[in-house]
Amino acid sequence: MRILIVRLRQIGDVVFTTPAVHALRRRFPDAHLAYLVEPAASSIVAANPHLNEVVVAPRGRGWSALGQDLVLGRRLRRARYDVVLDFHGGPRASLLTWLSGAPVRIGYDVLGRGWMYTRRVHRPRELRERHSVDNQWDLLESLGIERPTPERNPVEMPVDSRAAHVVEQRLAAAGVSWNDRLAVLHVSAGNPFRRWPIESFGEVAASLAARDRRNRIVVTSGPSESDAATRVITDARGRLPTAERGRVLDCGEFSLTELRALVERAALYIGGDSGPMHIAATSSVSMVSLYGPTLPVRSAPWRPARWPSVAVEVSGLPCRPCDQRRCAPGDFRCLNRISPTQVIDAAAGLLGSADQGAEAPGQVP
């Protein structure tokens, strides 16, 4: 049997499909299992041990993009897949699924595109208080695959050995030893709804650096927002005595594979609900996750409970969750009202529990 998984666009969404990849491999151990993904998220699945093939779909524009997709569709048809699962459901993903010509094409019953699938699964338009991994599992039920749990079906992204070597070299160049304790702060996000203020991140970084002489704070950001990392580092160092400023590190940008290797080395990860947060969830690092317009019940780290995670959010807002197209109050209060103290306390609790050899589950309202 030849099976193709289709999931385009967002990094976090691709991470959320990795439990399904493993489940398909267990259900069909001898199948040829392929994955269709766009370039930005391809490194998430490039080294997945359960896949036989990763097909990268370049993103073009205008009529040339349609031409590229028609060429790709012919390639998929020649591959003669028996089953295609479209976990995305967008116009491009639906088209490519249909162009594959697979006899079994499973997707969501989306208005105007449901006809492209041979098996259609209902997907409510409203936001449900149900995890994204659980939502997409609806596509797998017709294949006889049991419902997932984080313990049995965690998200996965193996550490790339070359990336790990690069990370160790950069940490060593920054003066980090194996006796130091790393905290990773990811300070950028894909849209303003998930972007916590620079000053808040700076206060958290400075507090953690001052708390323990072993702590080293690595500030990361996306490639298009490197200035955010620089501003956080400057802000944090400005809050510290001269002797402690070197604990807030400037290590430059990290690729997604390097970020995965970095969190494997770290004791703590702090960041908003974004792709890098879900990459961190593929490790056992302790995590503090900041939720603005999204809900932990939908996008919390999907991994075993023995790996501690704390969700920090503002409760009781009638505008939350939202579709992230327009902020009704206009001030992004769901995220901006999260105080640095909440995050510092959550981080300190996780680090303290790690020092005591205990786990620290929880949620900060």
Helix and strand element order: EHEHEHEHEEHHEHEHEHEHEHEHHE
CATH architecture of the largest domain: 3-Layer(aba) Sandwich
- The portion of residues assigned to helices is 25-40%
Can you count the helices? 13
Q: For the CA atoms, what is the radius of gyration?
A: 21 Å
Number of strands: 13
* Low-confidence spans: 358-365
Q: How many angstroms does the end-to-end distance come to?
A: 48 Å
CATH class of the largest domain: Alpha Beta
How would you describe this structure to a colleague?
By secondary structure, the protein is an alpha/beta fold. It has helices at residues 11-27, 42-45, 62-79, 91-99, 132-136, 161-173, 198-211, 226-238, 256-265, 275-280, 296-299, 333-336, 340-355; strands spanning 2-6, 32-37, 53-56, 83-86, 104-108, 119-121, 181-186, 215-220, 248-249, 268-272, 286-291, 309-313, 362-364. The strands form 2 sheets. The protein has a 7-stranded parallel beta sheet, with helices on both faces. The protein has a 6-stranded parallel beta sheet with strand order 3-2-1-4-5-6, sandwiched between helices. It is built from 13 helices and 13 strands. It has 2 domains: 2-143, 3-Layer(aba) Sandwich (Rossmann fold), CATH 3.40.50; 161-364, Rossmann fold (3-Layer(aba) Sandwich), CATH 3.40.50.2000. Helix 3 packs parallel to helix 4, helix 6 (161-173) packs across helix 9 (256-265) and helix 7 crosses helix 8 (226-238). The protein starts with a strand and ends with a strand. The model is unreliable at 358-365 (pLDDT under 50). Strand 7 (181-186), helix 7 and strand 8 form a beta-alpha-beta unit.
